[in-house]
TrEMBL record:
The keyword Kinase does not apply. Keywords: ATP-binding, Membrane, Nucleotide-binding, Transmembrane, Transmembrane helix. It holds the Pfam family ABC_tran. One of its GO terms (cellular component) is plasma membrane. Residues 55-343 form the ABC transmembrane type-1 domain. It comes from Umezawaea endophytica. It is found in: Cell membrane. One of its GO terms (molecular function) is ABC-type oligopeptide transporter activity. SUPFAM superfamilies: ABC transporter transmembrane region, P-loop containing nucleoside triphosphate hydrolases. PANTHER family: ATP-BINDING CASSETTE SUB-FAMILY B MEMBER 10, MITOCHONDRIAL, ATP-DEPENDENT PERMEASE MDL1, MITOCHONDRIAL. The chain crosses the membrane at residues 52-80, 92-112, 173-191, 197-217, 286-308. Residues 377-618 form the ABC transporter domain. This is ABC transporter ATP-binding protein/permease.
Amino acid sequence: MAETLIGVEDLEPPRWASVDAQVAAAGTWRTLAAVPSATGLVIRLAWRTSRWLTALAGVVQVLSGCVTAFGLLATASVFTRLLEEGPTPQRLVAALPSIGLLVGSFALRGLLDSAAGAVQGALTPRVRHAAQDALNAAVIGVDLAAFDDPDFRELVRQGGRYAMNSIEVANRVVTDLVSAVISLLAAMVTAGVLNPWLAPVLLLSAIADGWSAMRVAKLGYRNFLRMVTRRLRLFVVENLMVARDVAVERFALTLQEPLMTEHRRIADDVTSEEVRLEARKTLVRLVGRTLAGVGTGIAYLVLGVLLYTGAMPLALAGAAVVAMRTASTSLSTTMYAVNQLYEHSFYIDFYRRLLTTAHARHHVSTGVTAPTDPTVIRLENVTFTYPDADRPALGGIDLEINRGEVVALVGQNGSGKTTLGKLITGLYTPDEGRVLWDDVDIAAADRESVHTRISVISQEPAHWPMTAGHNIRVGRLDRHDPSGAGWAEAVDQSGARAVLEAFPRGERTVLSKEFKDGHEPSGGQWQRISVARGIYRDAAILVADEPTAALDAKAEATVFAGLQHATRSRTTILVTHRLANIRNVDRIVVLDDGRIVARGTHDELMAADGLYRELYDIQARAYER
Ligand SMILES: Nc1ncnc2c1ncn2[C@@H]1O[C@H](COP(=O)(O)OP(=O)(O)OP(=O)(O)O)[C@@H](O)[C@H]1O
């Protein structure tokens, strides 16, 4: 067995991970700049979700901060009255109004805290939902090629996984921050009024706390980036251990144990990295705490010096201590909130970039509509390279297909037949050259107008987890077929009738083992359903990519007869290796290594004695034996 199950140890990290690693390594002030933009994004999301709730959350938090500030002033006043000169009963009576205000502020603060909790409870799930919805809208609109780009897929996976949580946390934290900052300001002002020296020294401990939290957040994010590929491996192996589509081979190849070993190996690595990370975080926190403690000590020392030198009367000492304590509590809440925002700002920025990247991959509509039923499809010098591939899958393709023609694409594995089918139908856009439907360049045409005209029967059809009937109707959900005649015709032409009848509940059988009582069709049964779906779509251009690869001889004959009938009014592109089936098509195009090497009718190509004849003779000999 290879040393690792995947076969290589150093999988390339996604491009964005290396870009982010540079960002994470940048100076504190540069990265701190991410906090306001992340906060802005969360507030905008909340505002768009519910203006009313967002405004209410702001008002409640501002009030809560003001009440804390008010309580602080009342406490200071109580202390000043109690520590004044004169008989104790008199001082107590003098302090009573302030005590009353203090009790009232406590009660009000309790009420406001509950209100803040209720508003948050109503707002946060809505914001999360809105963020997810915006993400879905961005991702669902990207072009097909984006899903061939592993960087993009991983960005979507990680973005969906981490960013939603971060947005939720940031949403809670932003509101806490408002009240914490207000009470902090009140405490600083009170302390500053008592003595100007008290205000700046209060900040000492906050600076130490802030430094350590930022370091911790950076360590965490860098670790996240370093572990991206290992976590991806872990995810892939975890999936392989339970995935149904590989279950048979997992058992037959006795891969359970190797998968376990591989999982353990990667997980051990990830775990020890995490343990190391936590140890480093603890050390940084310890240093931060120690420095913060020293900062607090200095603040109290300054207070002591002020009292000792008589710069501050003893009567104000109580108020000063309360102000310092409130300042310290609000400071820790503020610092905690800022740190949380800082830590989550990486992932929120990640979300923002995911939206931007996805939107950049959206097709920009030019308002041009593709022709409903093009008279001619013309490819002019078309070249196409898959994302991340180092050579083009197709190059220099010139081809003309007339309305109603049946054109077969043939060639060896990997010669580019499927890719060409996707370019003709506008599923992929060429890097160079043009694909014209009549005179419309479909790269510039509105996607919807192009896709609605095409029907694709895939080489590996999707197994839609729906009833058998719906698996065919999903071909065109908005088709007007009240009597079901169109549906019945597609079922008959594709040979799917016998398949549906064999299912336990006929067309009402759910085709997915994910559901209880779900049924799993065989490969050939799926294929016939997919042919029925392609015919039911009733589009002007039909691409059938190996539509009979999994079929028995009888089913194959039925499908070809059905397709021939269905293709009479359509332009059809047929990709197949079974050359005997295409002897009667209008034109055969032979591909080799991404290029068209021959074209013509069966007889012309046989006479030309090239690659087509070679392939045909090999197949014919196999049947003659
Ligand atoms: N999604 C993809 N991402 C990257 N490369 C791809 C992708 N799909 C196909 N390719 C590459 O493009 C080339 C052409 O593939 P294509 O599927 O078009 O060939 P084909 O002629 O249909 O092959 P087959 O007869 O095996 O179905 C191959 O080299 C293949 O490796």
